[in-house]
Amino acid sequence: MYNMSFDYFIDSHCHIHDKDFFDPNIRNTLIQRALEKNIKKMILIGTDHEDSLAARDFANSQDKKHEILFWSYGVHPSEWKKNRPIPDFKTNKPIAIGEVGLDYHFFNDNDDIPAEKAGQKQLFTEMLCLAEKYDLPVIFHVREAFDDFFEIIHEHPSIRGVVHSFSDNKKNLKRILSETNFYVGVNGLSTYSTLPTPPIERILLETDAPFLAPVPFRGETNEPAYIYNIAEWLAKKLKLDLKDIQKITTKNAFELFSFDKK
Fold it and tell me: Most CB contacts within 10 A, which of 39, 160, 196, 217?
């Protein structure tokens, strides 16, 4: 399908465009450190309208001869109350819609939980319709909400995507693998937890930088260069050669995101 060897890594999920976490003066340093670890593509993930446009602008500022940065458009479920313009991608199309989904983790006794859930579901459905309109893959954020997630997803059978930072149980991982064609994001969280590990043919590597730094950097600010450490951990976990992790996960990313068409 692709005339390439997939001889590098991809960070399929990071936030290095976000000035609240990364000083703009160090962004190029972060990219250079990633390149030195053979991470040659990075997707900048949008979390609301303004943040998505910041990801777009940073990606568009790069040297197009060496296209490294790509961007996604998304509104995170926690932002469901915000006003959100209807985006138009006629002239500048993102590589994906995301991160979008459902997150019930932070509900408390003071919340109007039915209204919160209804708002998140409505936003999620809007984002899926946007993905369908522009034929884009989706980067899903799902936390403690898999029953509702599957219910909505099954109403949109043409959707393809990746479940970002999977942090749930074996039952829900099995449902992802059996009921959908989605990939599963593996990041630093897996290096210090007992999470179930997906099969290699369904894995995308991601950092979620600045969050979830892997061992041995746990507790520090995460960055795309640490994809290499996640890949090393995964190679040991699955008893595979590091080159196999590189080749298969990069091929998976190409099959989902179609970098070659950008």
Answer: 39
Task: Report the C-alpha gap between 96 and 74 in whole angstroms.
Answer: 8
Q: Report yes or no: 131 and 159 within 8 Å, Cβ to Cβ.
A: yes
Question: Which amino acid, residue 257?
Answer: F
Tens of each residue's pLDDT in the chain, 262 residues: 455 789 999 999 999 999 999 999 999 999 999 999 999 999 999 999 999 999 999 999 987 656 899 999 999 999 998 888 888 898 889 999 999 999 999 887 777 899 999 999 999 999 999 999 999 999 999 999 999 999 999 999 999 999 999 999 999 999 999 999 999 999 999 999 999 999 999 999 999 999 999 999 999 999 999 999 999 999 999 999 999 999 999 999 999 998 865 4
